[in-house]
Model the fold of this input.
Amino acid sequence: MGCKDQIVPGLIGGEDICKLREAVCVHVEKVYDNCREKDCIEDAVVDFVDNVQDLIQNAVKVKTKDAEVVAVLADLEDVPFKRGFFTVNVRYKIRVAVEFCYKDVTGKLVNSSPKIGYVWFSKTVILFGSEGKIKIFRSVDPSSALPVQCEGCNDGCGGLVEQDNLPIIKVEVAEPLVLNTRIKRVHEKRHCGCDDDSSEVNAIIGPQRRVVVTIGLFSIIKLVRLVQLLIPAFNFCYPDKECITSTDENPCDVFDTIEFPLDQFFPPQKFEFPRDDD
Done:
């Protein structure tokens, strides 16, 4: 069986095996457990950046123009009596742009400019993250702002950054799907120090007209750990092509390398889409 002169990234054929050169020890993130989530966030109240209560009161209808996950907060805790498992608490911050349709002073229906608001959604899952309670010390990157945590290190000279080896949370999330937007009367809670001893209590106010959205969210939540793995290696991964750059002198040359986007003019038909069972 012949061997290729050079192995490039991609599928490996039987003739590539004879090009294996060494077993390499690498430090990588190994996925210990993961799960996929399909959440329908129903009637989540939108907290707007600006005061849009007048628009909400006078709106004939509302629609969401855009939705985007802008932040994900997560933390983990040990699961009691279940070694190696962790409770992962995830909170999504979703930015929405809402457009209001209302009647102006002449009675004509007009659309407002998109108003920005946020929706928060929380969920909890249990995943296996294994065990291992050690401290890891690594060298300091001079360009980073990481504090040096070592006893007796006053100037940071020779100090190492300390970290634990708890599992690392990874959340992959697709752009949310807005399924419905409407105005709904909801009861709200407000904090006030209005009792005799001035302690903080919850006061129910409402019902108030608020914008609520129903959002579909697809995500994958993982627990990974940094581990050393022994893997086969062919060689260093050298680039096998030159970069294509666009300059003032050759913009049309670059444009000539782009294929005509036929799919944009002739959208694929139903039978041309891949089926779920393929």
Notes: Residues 18-140+160-259 form one domain. The first strand starts at residue 22 and ends at 45.
